[in-house]
Specification:
- Helix 5 packs antiparallel against helix 7.
- The longest helix is centred in the middle third of the chain and has 33 residues.
- The strands form 3 sheets. Strands 1-4-7-10-13 form a 5-stranded parallel β-sheet. It has a 5-stranded parallel β-sheet with strand order 3-6-9-12-14. The protein has a 4-stranded parallel β-sheet with strand order 2-5-8-11, with no helix packed on it.
- Helices cover 48% and strands 10% of the residues.
- The chain has 2 domains: 152 residues, serine acetyltransferase, domain 1, CATH 1.10.3130; 94 residues, Hexapeptide repeat proteins (UDP N-Acetylglucosamine Acyltransferase, domain 1), CATH 2.160.10.
- The chain is an alpha/beta fold.
Length: 316
């Protein structure tokens, strides 16, 4: 027994010495990484000024949901007696968080890109107030989205189920919040918001897209809606739908930035799963139905159905 204990003790000492040898190399590795931070071809943000916090932006999304759907995502009991106090507190917290992050994004752009002073603190607070002013309108349009889901989905048992659990509603909610900030020319934050929703739901909506009311994303995984997409009212799309741009040249970043690159979907259109619609000149007319797996790079007249020819199955 003593010999076995002695053998284990010797093995542990050897392992400890081996680990120490590996760890002794860490300062050298760290020095090389620090040196690489001076490489101008790589991206760093080493500065005395703070940049926006992704964690704070995600917290802002959750605070927005508390206000947009009162009682559903509240952190404490909400009833008619506590509504005024609780909502006032939530609004104040959201204002402080949002104005701070907006200020940081504006200051970041000013300093990093040598822009003239834009009075970032005042602008951050003004935009935060303007966003809060837009909340009642946001609540109304989100109500149309929820109602449209319920009316078109027999699997939905209640509005509560839709608000709590449907990924499409989460993605649309975050998009609508981000879209308001995008219209106020807030940098960075809108994209951080929609990319968070993308990572959670698999639904990728650029905050610059223009989307009307009664919008439904059914199931949703794999949906892509590009920056210059225009979507009318009462539109329903299914999983795997892409509203994207045509193949872009290498210099597209500068040459096409701000140009219309994504399709226009008019009112009352249905687009089934796997459909791909590309191009800034492509218009899908009112009440058109686009079938599953259809690939379109040209416009479709109103009241038109576009379907793939039925594939031939082979059984062996």
């Amino acid at each position: 027994m003593d010999d076995e204990y002695k053998e284990r003790e010797d093995t542990c000492k050897i392992n400890a010495e081996s680990r120490a040898g590996f760890r002794e190399q860490l300062p050298e590795k760290a020095d090389k990484i620090i040196e690489s931070c001076n490489d101008t071809e790589c991206y760093t943000h080493i500065d005395y000024e703070l940049i926006p916090s992704q964690e704070s932006v995600i917290e802002i999304i959750e605070r927005c949901r508390e206000i947009l759907f009162p009682g559903y995502f509240s952190r404490e009991k909400l009833d008619p007696i506590t509504l005024k106090y609780s909502m006032g507190r939530s609004v104040a917290i959201l204002f402080d968080m949002l104005s701070e992050q907006i200020t940081l994004t504006i200051r970041h752009d000013c300093l990093r890109y040598h822009q003239p002073c834009s009075e970032c603190v005042d602008r951050g607070q003004m935009v935060a107030l303007d966003f809060l002013e837009a909340v009642p309108s946001l609540r109304k349009i989100l109500a149309t989205d929820v109602a449209a889901v319920y009316e078109g989905d027999p699997a939905a048992k209640s509005y509560d189920e839709i608000i709590f659990s449907y990924p499409g509603i989460f993605a649309i909610t975050v998009y609508r919040v981000a879209h308001v900030l995008h219209k106020f020319d807030v940098p960075l934050l809108p994209r951080i918001m929609t990319e968070h929703a993308h990572s959670v739901t698999g639904i990728d909506i650029h905050p610059g897209a223009e989307i009307g009311e009664n919008f439904v994303i059914d199931h949703g995984t794999g949906v892509v809606i590009g920056e210059t997409t225009i979507v009318g009212n009462n539109v329903r799309i299914y999983q795997g739908v892409t509203l994207g741009a045509l193949s872009l040249p290498m210099d597209a970043g500068e040459r096409l930035r701000g140009k219309k690159r994504h399709p226009t979907i008019e009112d009352d259109v249905i687009i089934y799963s796997g459909a791909t619609i590309l191009g800034g000149d492509t218009i899908i007319g009112t009440r058109a139905v686009i079938g599953g797996n259809v690939w379109l790079t040209e416009s479709v007249p109103p009241d038109t159905k576009v379907m793939m020819e039925a594939p031939r199955l082979i059984y062996k």
